Amino acid sequence: MPVTSEGGERLPQLGCNVEPVTSTLRAAALPTRPAGAAFLRLSDGVPPSLSRTGGSGVLAYARQGVRVAHDTPSEGSIELFLFSVSPGEIRLLAGHEKADVARAIFAASARREPNLPPELMEALRSANDRILAELRTPSDADRTQGLRFAIFPIAAIALG
User: Stretch 86-104: mean pLDDT, rounded?
Assistant: First the structure.
């Protein structure tokens, strides 16, 4: 059924590739300024994996599998990855430890004046590059099955 104006004129189709729609979507979804780490203060009951001298941080990612079979891509499962990062250490969190850290982050408050060691900030930057490369790289078995990964960084969190 065509869309018409009040005067009965047929209106052109409006799709995602039309300039007003494209610019509106970009403005809503893509920030114009770069975003950085969240600086959080943990409440009581800090999970042991986050209690590090010299500070600690958390990097969070979603990874979605995409399988290509017979020239047709199909989306696979989505996984949540949390990594505990401190100077000199990157650890993948799993199971109850991952759940405890996620709960601690949701209960944390924002720091007004973060005063964190520069070593922690550099550790988060370098860990991000390394983790992204690892998460994107499919195993030999994944390649054989035509499985590739899309990685979505969710959060970089500096804790203090």
Answer: 90
Tell me how many domains the chain contains.
1
Question: What are the distances in angstroms from CA 119 to CA 45, 56, 57, 113, 155?
Answer: 25, 10, 11, 17, 19
Is 29 domain-assigned? no
Can you give the pLDDT at residue 132? 94
21 occurs within a structural domain: no
Owning domain of residue 77: 37-159
Do residues 40 and 60 touch, judged by C-beta distance below 8 A?
Answer: no
- 9-24 exposure pattern, b = at least 16 Cβ within 10 A, e = fewer: eeeeeeeeeeeeeeee
Cβ atoms 81, 61 nearer than 8 A: yes
User: How much is the mean pLDDT over the chain?
Assistant: 83
